[in-house]
Design brief:
Blueprint lengths: L1 E2 L3 E7 L6 E8 L6 H12 L5 E5 L9 H17 L4 E5 L3 H11 L4 H27 L5 E2 L19
Parallel strand pairs: 4-5
Antiparallel strand pairs: 1-2, 2-3, 5-6
Length: 161
């Protein structure tokens, strides 16, 4: 998942976890949370076993405002798709790489905008898949939901929307 303030690019892997492919771009509209519902619907329909969210960092590894937005977004996604695990992975240069790949594929400037988020999501997921295959460990860091003091706990009895 490549999280932006206007769009969220989605990709998926094949069942063997070898190849990431573009899936969909979900539009975000201020004051409308339906994009979370669409993501939860996709997770359910595709029987997703894990959600990977890109965490933007600078080249030095520092996190800025965009990383804070991605972290907050990943927590809400985790709440809505529980008990499916959600992980944050470094997405340094994913959008730059996606633009380069689309340019090399002959996709012209204006036609890139609708698909660049999906292409960035592919770069993020492919990197995570390759990392897991090489190390034998899940990539990135898990998104941990805080226990609700008034409820049974994260991931228990929550409905997908």
């Amino acid at each position: 998942m490549d999280v932006g303030s206007v769009r969220v690019g989605l990709s998926r892997s094949d069942v063997s976890g070898l190849l990431a492919t573009p899936l969909e771009t979900v539009q975000r509209v201020d004051g409308d949370d339906s994009h979370y519902g669409r993501i939860a619907q996709i997770v359910t329909e595709l029987a997703v076993c894990e959600v990977i969210v890109g965490l933007p960092r600078s080249l030095s590894g520092a996190e800025g405002a965009a990383a804070g937005l991605a972290r907050a977004y990943s927590v809400e996604v985790a709440r809505r798709v529980a008990p499916v695990p959600v992980r944050l992975v470094d997405e340094r240069l994913s959008t730059v790489t996606a633009h380069q790949q689309l340019r090399q594929a002959g996709v012209k400037g204006r036609k890139r905008r609708p698909v660049v988020d999906q292409a960035a999501a592919v770069v993020i997921l492919q990197s995570a898949l390759d990392s897991e295959r090489a190390s034998g460990r899940p990539p990135g860091t898990p998104v941990v939901l805080e226990a609700d003091p008034d409820g049974p706990g994260p991931g228990h009895g929550e409905a997908l929307t």
